[in-house]
Design goal:
Blueprint (H helix, E strand, L loop, with lengths): L5 H13 L4 E5 L2 E5 L1 E10 L3 H12 L4 E4 L11 E3 L6 E3 L9 H9 L4 E3 L8 E6 L4 E2 L9 H11 L17 H4 L2 H7 L6 H7 L11 H7 L2 H9 L3 E3 L5 H11 L3 E2 L3 E6 L6 E7 L2 E12 L15 H7 L3 E2 L1 E8 L7 E5 L13 E7 L5 E8 L5 H14 L12 E7 L5 E2 L2 H5 L2 H6 L7 E3 L9 H16 L1
Parallel strand pairs: 3-4, 3-14, 4-11, 8-17, 14-22
Antiparallel strand pairs: 1-2, 5-6, 7-10, 8-9, 12-13, 13-14, 15-21, 16-19, 16-20, 17-18, 18-19
Helix pairs in contact: 2-10, 2-15
The site of flavin-adenine dinucleotide (FAD) has 33 residues, from helix 2, strand 16 and helix 15.
Protein name: Amine oxidase domain-containing protein
Pfam families: Amino_oxidase
Keywords: Signal
Length: 468
């Protein structure tokens, strides 16, 4: 009997379950042949951390939903690698969650159990190298971050509103606009800087970012969790399970490998989105829209952006952030290597570059985290990682090892941010004013900060007005 590849069968099943009769629709003056027309209370754009949370919450509240996701799985920055040889899972993206009632309830809802986890590096001994030269930084000893963190916490406590969003007072306090490097010097927080730099990976060179962004990412709940050892992860150390479970709940309401072709939010009763899916165009009639994707103009082709939306979104700059695994690094299996600058301000690593190479508990594989102030090509990042790994001098290193990038994920665009001048001039007041306009609610990293637990709390605050 002739057999069909599973993706063909899956596509057929999807067509049959969604209806295969084609019809047409006209949106924004264009004519589309559509395989299906659906009506939903809420269409969620992006099935990452916030989009999945929003979809589950809204579905549980009795709303019909559709999720438009451009790749083939939910979870966004949550990437769990399962080693084929050992079966060991490694969370290369989102690793830890806050111990809050909202997080506990969400995981319980999706039947995924949690356990405590430290953030100390898993037992490997850490050596410090300047990755520009590969040399061991023998004169560098990390300082005890505790006094700096306490002083940082005292400053942070003056601005409680940064913890919940971008609802800032105007004029915006000068210290929030100060570059974080200058802020650290102003309040003598140097001892905490390497720790904060390491935690806020992905934000690029935090010394040059307005302090506001660092406060939001490294906020009071992070300080609490560090002090109490209260971080959580999934019991099986496979954070992808949360999204597999969510996918089972959402079923065929998730449109994978799908993108917006065009959108019209001017209708009286609903917005219309034409979505390109693997099984043809789908016309979605949406009473409301939850927007969760990076709001960069080059990611918004087909969106009917208003003048205001365009003016705001085009101001976002973004950092680049890349993760994965290097095989055959030559670094001994009991050693992790952290990048520092032997002669840089705060001994911060020079970016673009590796933050470090860490053990994951699988012999021959190390985790890499690589960051930069802007998007870089995957080819450049891979080549830079390999060159830096080769250069590294580490006691016991196998110098003849030929490293290779075994797993690579681009998390770019990552941190979306604007200049201190824009913040001062009311950028976020205007951004917040978009909420609920044109049937659209905005959430996700750019609208709060890159922390899943905090984003779920932020999204939760929007739920009543989406439900209203
Ligand atoms: C390496 C790494 C480690 C991290 N570690 C942690 C951690 O330990 N704990 C923590 O809380 N947070 C962590 N974060 C941050 C956390 O992942 C983010 O804050 C969170 O995922 C942001 O959620 P989001 O929904 O805004 O974006 P995402 O999770 O990225 O979701 C966006 C989704 O939209 C999709 N999409 C994008 N563009 C389009 C489009 N045009 N059309 C349709 N779909 C689109 C994407 O494919 C993606 O699925 C980490 C991030 C990274 C990169």
């Amino acid at each position: 009997m002739k057999s069909f590849p599973s993706f063909v069968l899956a596509s057929l099943a999807a067509i049959l379950s969604r209806g295969y009769a084609t019809s047409t629709c006209d949106v924004n003056g264009k004519h589309y042949q559509v395989a299906d027309t659906i009506s939903r209370d809420v269409c969620v754009i992006g099935g990452g951390s916030t989009g999945t949370y929003a979809a589950i919450r809204l579905k549980d509240a009795g709303k019909s939903v559709a999720v438009i996701e451009k790749v083939d799985q939910l979870g966004g920055h949550t990437q769990t690698y399962i080693d084929p040889a050992t079966g060991v899972p490694v969370n290369l993206g989102v690793a830890v969650f806050h111990n809050t009632s909202l997080v506990l309830e969400y995981f319980a809802r999706l039947n995924v159990s949690l356990t405590s986890i430290g953030i100390s590096g898993g037992g490997a001994s850490i050596v410090y190298n300047d990755f520009r030269t590969g040399l061991i930084a023998s004169n560098y000893t990390p300082s005890n971050p505790a006094p700096g963190l306490a002083a940082y916490g005292a400053q942070l406590a003056k601005y409680p509103y940064v913890e919940t969003g971008f609802d800032l007072p105007y004029p915006v306090p000068e210290d929030l606009l100060l570059s974080f490097g200058d802020f650290v010097e102003k309040y003598s927080l140097q001892s905490a800087m390497p720790f904060i730099y390491g935690f806020a990976q992905g934000l690029g060179d935090i010394s040059s970012l307005p302090t506001l962004y660092v406060f939001k990412n490294f906020g009071s709940d992070i300080l609490r969790l560090i002090a109490t050892g209260g971080f959580l992860t999934t019991t099986l150390h496979n954070n992808g399970l949360l999204y597999q479970s969510a996918q089972a709940v959402l079923g065929k309401d998730v449109y994978f490998n799908s993108t917006v072709m065009t959108m019209d939010r001017s209708g009286r009763d609903h917005a219309t989105i034409v979505v390109k899916t693997p099984t043809g165009m789908v016309e979605m009639q949406c009473k409301k829209i939850v927007f969760t994707i990076p709001p960069k103009l080059n990611n918004l082709h087909g969106f009917d952006l208003s003048h205001n939306e365009t003016k705001l979104f085009q101001k976002f700059k973004n950092t680049g952030y890349y993760t994965g695994l290097v095989r055959n690094s030559g670094i001994p299996d009991n050693t992790s290597v952290t990048n520092i600058g032997a002669d840089t301000r705060f001994n911060s690593p020079t970016l673009p570059g590796l933050y470090g190479l860490s053990q994951v508990g699988i012999p021959g594989l190390v985790d890499f985290k690589y960051g930069g102030a802007s998007s870089l090509s995957d080819a450049f990042v891979k080549q830079d990682i390999l060159a830096a790994t080769k250069r590294l001098q580490v006691v016991g290193k196998n110098e003849s090892a030929e490293p290779e990038v075994a797993v690579f994920y681009s998390h770019t665009p990552f941190e979306c941010h604007v200049s201190a001048e824009e913040i001062k001039n009311g950028f976020y007041k205007k951004l917040i004013a978009l909420q609920g306009q044109r049937r659209t609610w905005y959430t996700g990293g750019a609208f709060h900060t890159h922390d899943s637990s905090l984003l779920w709390a932020f999204t939760e605050e929007l739920i009543p007005s989406i439900l209203a």
